[in-house]
């Protein structure tokens, strides 16, 4: 029952020798969701032992090259590996042309279907659901249309205590009801209260991805109480004017959003290549002052959210 | 007066965590020539401290994705760095469409000119010359049109012995003549023979790049006596049928070409991802049996050709 994010790329538009263009991989119970697809994403996926063939859904935040140029290589590899499973790509409607050009020029022998799902960039909406998660998109503020994504685990049922199944001889037909909170009636008419039969449900976990964006308070609602907020932090505090001009954020601004949204943990990334080690640490320090639970996104890092049970009321 | 090749990518179409798609960088006396442009080439260039801004000429062997998908990222970075110098791209005429699509969708604010120079793929021809080198293209044998490239240093002049300039009070006007082999006449009419004034010229160096290709003996003439022959070796000997079917070569076949061409050194690369360490060493061993001076292309390796003077006749 894992819920983890692997950082594949943490640089802004110009990569460095260590920081690659934007891409994250979300693993929810061995279902894999790729978020953005910067150049060399397929190499990063291999480097960090991610299951490249198990990605069925790709979410693209916007149409800048550092978020999509890895798609061509990844799709080519899927063709060579004779992928069969359909691949869903969520993004701006312009991505259709980008993919069509690929298919026309490099798609010979393609063995799988690519479904392009255009995302509306003007309002929050649920764009995807499966049995593990739901995904919402919401507008960010940048030089071109950009959306953030909120990945939210489905509400989990109560866990039944297996010892009690035996003790009370509970039939299969009653188990689902008990998991949904019902009590159980014994043949003699006496009632076993639900709390004696179950453990509290696990809390559903969440992860939000917000890049590229200027400081934009409207997203606070969209990401409120999220477990991990990934927010871009292209610039340090003293470069706030540059951030404003280019519709990016400082790490301090990312921290302010995390604080207002009551996020549990903040991941910052999309760092400008102008900051080298150890200077880049200032981005972290300036964020921590506002929001102590800040971490830098670094290639290969895996950020896990542990399962926790709800409190009984 | 360097002449060296840096390996940026040595994998075949599907990269691995260690081997990137095809790209080499040739450095001739700090003039930089990029050969093929596989995904992540800009990251590799940075990783190996290559001067990304000093590349003015890019040679593309063919239109398969693993040889060109790095172009989009590289061009984007040039735009962000506000490159001014024109960039020449040599390749199949189809590359124009590929670059046009880039300009249309991602070329906003471009500050430099891209010159596309279409290469004819049917016959050997000189496609480029500057004051350092000439570059010829010649046909290879693959599933789509592919050409190899031969990079040849210009014939160098004799080197003048500076001590003799002082000794005989040689005027500037005579120096170029002496470098071209003329004798020098003293004011008293006596003749100083050229060999007493000069050191022998340096031998011009050469490098050939041949990928992707089936075993194709016709190229032996095109690359004869080359200092370094880079020849693809996608497969091992026992997979020779696969090599034939896919228009690729085995490492043994690469070695046969090197032997017939009287190359001084063979570099093999474009390895299939199916061969892992240490199994991949067999590719090298099978080549060495035929051509002992074989080396594996590995990311970051720099293969230098030292300057040597010609022998006096």
The parts of chain A where pLDDT drops under 50 for at least 5 residues are none
The number of helical elements of chain A comes to 10
Q: Evaluate the radius of gyration of chain A.
A: 22 Å
CATH topology of the largest domain in chain A: Metallo-beta-lactamase, Chain A
Please identify the oligomeric state: homodimer
Secondary structure: helix percent of chain A: 10-25%
Secondary structural class of chain A:
alpha/beta
Strand content of chain A: 25-35%
Largest interface: A-B, 31 and 31 residues
Instruction: Measure the end-to-end span of chain A.
Output: 24 Å
**Spatial order of strands in the largest sheet of chain A:** 6-5-4-3-2-1-18
Shape of chain A: globular
Indicate the mean pLDDT of chain A: 95
Order of H and E elements of chain A: EEEHEHHEHEEEEEHHEEEEHEHHEHEE
State the name of the first-level CATH class of the largest domain in chain A.
Alpha Beta
């Amino acid at each position: 029952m894992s819920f983890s994010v692997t950082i594949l790329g943490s640089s802004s538009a110009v990569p460095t020798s260590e920081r690659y263009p934007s891409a994250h991989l979300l693993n929810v119970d061995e279902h894999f969701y790729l978020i953005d697809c910067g150049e060399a994403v397929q190499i990063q996926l291999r480097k960090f032992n991610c299951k490249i063939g198990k990605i069925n859904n790709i979410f693209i935040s916007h149409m800048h090259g550092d978020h999509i140029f890895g798609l061509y290589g990844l799709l080519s590899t899927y063709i060579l590996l004779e992928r069969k499973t359909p691949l869903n790509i969520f993004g701006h409607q312009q991505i259709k042309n980008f993919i069509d050009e690929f298919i026309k020029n490099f798609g010979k022998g393609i063995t799988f279907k690519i479904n392009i799902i255009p995302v509306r960039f003007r309002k929050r909406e649920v764009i995807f659901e499966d049995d593990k998660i739901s995904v919402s998109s919401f507008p960010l503020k940048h030089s071109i249309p950009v959306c953030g994504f909120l990945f939210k685990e489905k509400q989990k049922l109560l866990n039944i205590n297996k010892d009690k199944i035996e003790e009370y001889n509970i039939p299969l037909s009653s188990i689902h009801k008990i998991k949904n909170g019902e009590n159980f009636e014994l043949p003699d008419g006496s009632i076993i209260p639900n709390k004696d039969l179950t453990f509290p449900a696990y809390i559903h976990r969440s992860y939000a991805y917000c890049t590229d964006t200027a400081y934009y308070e409207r997203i606070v609602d969209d990401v409120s109480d999220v477990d991990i907020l990934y927010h871009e932090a292209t610039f340090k505090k003293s470069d706030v004017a540059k951030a404003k001009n280019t519709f990016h954020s400082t790490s301090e601004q990312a921290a302010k959003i995390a604080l207002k949204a009551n996020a549990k943990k903040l991941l910052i990334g999309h760092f400008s290549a102008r900051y080298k080690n150890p200077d880049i640490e200032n981005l972290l320090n300036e964020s921590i002052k506002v929001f102590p639970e800040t971490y830098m996104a670094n290639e290969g890092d895996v950020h896990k959210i542990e399962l926790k049970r709800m409190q009984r009321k």
